[in-house]
Amino acid sequence: YLNRLLAADLQQARLWSAAPGVTPDGWYISAEIDDLNWRSEAARQPLLTWLNNEQRLISDVSAKPVYISSFFAGNMSPDGYRQLLEHVKATGVNVWVQDGSGVDKLTAEQRERYLQASADCQSSAPASGIVYELFVAGKGKTFTAKPKPDAEIASLLAKRSSCGKDTLYFSLRYLPVAHGILEY
């Protein structure tokens, strides 16, 4: 599975690097890191090996930063999650942490503890930034979502890191200006 993702990511990096007039600022790889499957050191090793290879091979195509996103659902402690992301960061791949507000599996206080441990402005926080979820997930096994209320989205769009970390939003289709244009 990871090797298929690597092949697809490399294909995209080569394609976009060769496209006239296109100069990407970085590469977002097509995987997410969760706090369930990578809890143990033994389970984590294949992931870290893959990320090392992914970062090295994509950097050979274009020496731009490589990014991956991660999410938490309470399967690790906030400190354990921070340690997982420290290991990921050590591979040379930058991590963006999803805020978890759209899927709403944890309380706001619980989510804040994870975000403080992993993406806060303290020097030990390994994440490069936060991905704010602009949706409310539906119930059920298949992922469905609708946009958060416009006022809540406006509040999220105004957020900025006080220490210059990245601020991202998922997904553009949930923005009020995209209503009727992008499906969700």
What does this structure look like?
This protein has helices at residues 2-18, 41-61, 78-90, 108-119, 150-157; strands at residues 27-33, 66-70, 94-98, 129-133, 135-137, 145-147, 166-170. With 184 residues, it is α/β, with parallel strands linked by helices. It has one domain. It has a five-stranded parallel β-sheet. It has a two-stranded antiparallel ribbon with strand order 5-6. α4 (108-119) links the parallel β3 and β4. The relative contact order is 0.12.
Write the layout of secondary structure elements.
Layout: H1 2-18, E1 27-33, H2 41-61, E2 66-70, H3 78-90, E3 94-98, H4 108-119, E4 129-133, E5 135-137, E6 145-147, H5 150-157, E7 166-170
Parallel strand pairs: 1-2, 2-3, 3-4, 4-7
Antiparallel strand pairs: 5-6
Helix pairs in contact: 1-2, 3-4
From N to C, what is the helix and strand string?
HEHEHEHEEEHE
Mean pLDDT: 93
Strand line-up of the largest beta sheet: 1-2-3-4-7
What is the helix tally? 5
Q: What is the C-alpha radius of gyration, as a whole number of Å? A: 17 Å
Number of domains: 1
Strand residues, percent = 15-25%
Q: What is the percent of helical residues?
A: 25-40%
Major sheet attributes: 5 strands, parallel
- Can you tell me the overall shape? globular
